[in-house]
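Notes taken during the Thursday session

The instructor put the following on the board and asked us to keep it in front of us for the whole hour. The protein is PglD N-terminal domain-containing protein. We were told not to look anything up and to reason only from what is written here. First, the residues (213 in total):
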Amino acid sequence: MTLFAVYGASGFGREVMPLLRAHVPAGAEAVFIDDNVDVDRVNGHRVMNWEAFAAAPASEKKVTIAIANSQVREAIVEKCLASGVGFIDVKADNVRILDAVTLGEGHILCGFVTLTSNVNIGTNFHANIYSYVAHDCVVGDFVTLAPCVQCNGNVVIEDHAYIGTGAVIRQGSPGAPIVIGRGAVVGMGAVVTKSVPPGVTVVGNPARPLVKS
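Then, after some discussion, the predicted structure tokens were revealed:
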């Protein structure tokens, strides 16, 4: 038997499972992995903790990691690699990918996502429903786009950045892209008009660093 798993049985994981099922061949089983759920089944699929999944007899095991926290996602990748567990890319049927797009391993592309032309995306990328990445963008590893993100052309998004629901990133220029720094967070509905330093959270229109009271 081959086991295909969605790591994470929370809301996003339950959205990803139907997309994973489309990639599961006859005779294989699709399951959830979750270390914090005390139920046996979710939406008709078995739920296993990591130890049970790793120990389960199977000729092949592959995982897609449906967890938004990029640091947790990276730790799970390392755990899978150490255990010889492979990865499966997940893509909705209505995703649009145009010319000269490269995508790293472990990506999840949800419904109505569009990647236009001349786009380079790293590993373990998440693009939630209705998000797009336009021409001449470079996206790092473990980047998350929440629903309805508009990433316009000539933008660089560095590793572990999180772009919140409905955020808009203004188009940069050739040789002078808008840069979202490593580990930066763009808040829900923010409109980014200039580069965001690494590790900084920005909110609002135009987006400015979040000031905590």
